[in-house]
Amino acid sequence: MSKSEQIKIRRERRIRRIRKRVSGTAERPRLRVTRTLKHIYAQIIDDEQGVTLAAASSVGLKIAGGNVEAARQVGRALGEIALSRDIRKICFDRGGRKYHGRIKALADAAREAGLEF
Q1: CA 67 to each of CA 26, 99, 101, 116: distance values in angstroms, whole numbers, following the listed order
Q2: Can you count the helices (H) and strands (E) in the chain?
């Protein structure tokens, strides 16, 4: 098994471990963050109904997404969309990634926009 396969398997285990505890409800939906090398994506999901309530990404905002500033802009945009749809409280799903860098910048910007974690 190659090193990249091992990294992928460990991340999938972390995701499953997190998802056992973190689930979105109508009162407190889940903010899911996905990051790639070029872009960052965020969705607010109600897992009970299986619907996405709000979404924002660096692709949709047409910004270069491989940096912390782009993550801040996506977090700010998602916070504004969520508040316009009366979503205030959320639970955060970092997608098996460490809470630093772009993930932390997105979360901080969403908090500044008015979301409560």
Answers
A1: 32, 15, 9, 24
A2: 3, 4
Tokens of 73: 């802009």
Assigned CATH for 3-113:
3.30.420.100
Q: How high is the pLDDT of residue 65?
A: 72
Q: For the CA atoms of the chain, what is the radius of gyration?
A: 14
The distance in angstroms from the start CA to the end CA of the chain is: 38
Residue type, 82: A
Mean pLDDT of all residues in the chain? 93
Domain ranges of the chain: 3-113
* pLDDT tens string 23-68: 888 889 999 999 999 999 999 999 999 999 999 999 999 998 789 9
